[in-house]
């Protein structure tokens, strides 16, 4: 760094770090400078990591979170869908195990004439990525130009799921990678500003957030998930993006498929009017929220799933991105079935270890540059609340290399429980709804 460059900097990173470390609020100009100077490379990774840890421990006031979000938006391009002449609604999930909801949801909402721009990501660690799942479909292409995305949204299809361009909130990209390796991911101000900077920069009119809680989510307990949801709803509302959040249970995997190709198969079942009850229920709940924000609170989403309109949109959406919706999906070379060791009710299947096991089978990646194995994953034969008899299959592991089964099985040690049907927890598990609370700009409802 030259002497002139140093002389022109308006603030000192060390002062900003100290202010947050000591529990104070960072003034707006200093916070904006910190984000900008980090993006330019003037503030070092070590300084930013220290600041992120101070935020993790001390938190941020509402105004600071707004400024941080705004500064991250200002670090890159802002898209606009105003020229489409249609309402745009997006959905974002904070990430879970078996969470394939975007796949049936985007075409379902598009049936009602609303444009759905789903700029999605790839999986890292135990949570899957929407683009990885869709890339199981032969020919399907995640990278679209802005013109292609617009054409797809404007025309008959009306929905697009594609890779977010690197121009959106580059400050977040750099900061997120740093947080990932410095133990500073799970902080409400940092998660909220990270997610919302990208969503606001994307230019959607409205946004529905699926905020997960439970052992497979960033936020283990519902109170912290609620705080995250409220913070994001406020950020969206303050920026003119109509935003609603649902708090949803991520204690058990969503649906029966965890992986990539198998999650596409399950999504197609939902689009055909079937599929696991929890996937169908959450798809419809999120679709209703999205359509309500787009001015269609009475849209009959159930009929659109059951009469084939959502499936027609799906086929059109996949074809528009060069995929073949009729093509066979990859199947793994090896399988390993785990069976029940006793009669009873499955009271628990913890999402996190199932996510880790699927990752170890090859469905996820450890480093951003790794490839995923699309056929790898886990298929659940039973879900919590279901009755089993000894010897009955519980789930099947799939991999291309049977050497992967041992480490996946290690992750699953103690991850599920079978209890006598007469115990209290066996009765309790059947009663849990997937959507627990709804959070809007006006408040919270159960
Ligand atoms: N997803 C994001 O985009 N950012 C976070 O901080 C966490 C999840």
Automatic annotation (TrEMBL):
Alphabetized UniProt keyword annotations: Glycosyltransferase, Transferase
Pfam families found in the cross-reference section: Glycos_trans_3N, Glycos_transf_3, PYNP_C
InterPro entries, per database record: Glycosyl_Trfase_fam3, Glycosyl_Trfase_fam3_N_dom, Glycosyl_Trfase_fam3_N_dom_sf, Nuc_phospho_transferase, PYNP-like_C_sf, PYNP_C, Pyrmidine_PPas_bac/euk, Pyrmidine_PPase_CS
Enzyme class: transferase
Top-level taxon in the UniProt lineage: Bacteria
EC annotation from Swiss-Prot or TrEMBL: 2.4.2.4
Every Pyrimidine nucleoside phosphorylase C-terminal domain range: 345-419
Molecular function in Gene Ontology: thymidine phosphorylase activity
Subunit structure: Homodimer.
Protein name: Thymidine phosphorylase
